[in-house]
Write a structure and sequence with these properties.
CATH architecture of the domain at 34-123: Orthogonal Bundle
Strand order of the largest sheet: 1-3-2
CATH topology of the domain at 34-123: Arc Repressor Mutant, subunit A
Distance between the termini: 41 Å
Order of helices and strands: HHHEHHEEHHH
Radius of gyration: 20 Å
Number of helices: 8
Number of strands: 3
């Protein structure tokens, strides 16, 4: 009887019972699969996410961009420097507040948007889920993320 009690005691920390592990493993695998379609664009997954935010929202301060893509400045700043060195973005100090950087797409960065249009299509078959299941998964992940970040 004690043996059953001991086994039950550790049930909560078994890998197979964790939600975090399949989320982690799936996210890691999805990012890995992005390498192939992003290779011709010469972008990492994180750079691609930043570029998508700029394509969608236009110029943003570094802080606004960090909030949208959920990256801290320690991660975002060097990434932005690399994108700037490639001529995809520009970083300018705001004249109203010199502590803030305005991040904008260059013409080259705008042109890259056309080349990036194929990436979602290339990723469509990455997950073996029907369209309705993909939408449900997205809604649940958005809900979970909102719940975690609003606390």
């Amino acid at each position: 009887m004690e043996n059953t009690h001991t086994a039950d005691r550790y049930e909560a920390i078994r890998l197979r019972n964790q939600l975090c592990f399949p989320l982690y493993a799936c996210a890691k695998e999805v990012v890995r699969r992005y390498r192939e379609p992003l290779s011709p664009l010469d972008l990492t997954y994180t750079q691609y996410v930043v570029m998508m935010a700029l394509w969608e929202f236009g110029s943003l301060t570094e802080g606004e961009l960090g909030e949208k893509v959920r990256l801290d400045s320690g991660t975002l700043a060097p990434l932005l420097k690399r994108l700037e060195a490639r001529g995809l973005i520009s970083r300018e100090r705001l004249c109203t507040n010199e502590r803030k950087l305005l991040i904008s797409l260059t013409e080259k960065g705008e042109i890259l948007k056309e080349e990036a249009v194929h990436v979602p299509e290339a990723m469509r078959d990455c997950l073996d889920l029907q369209e309705e299941e993909l939408q449900q998964l997205k809604q649940l992940l958005d809900k979970a993320l909102t719940g975690m970040t609003s606390r």
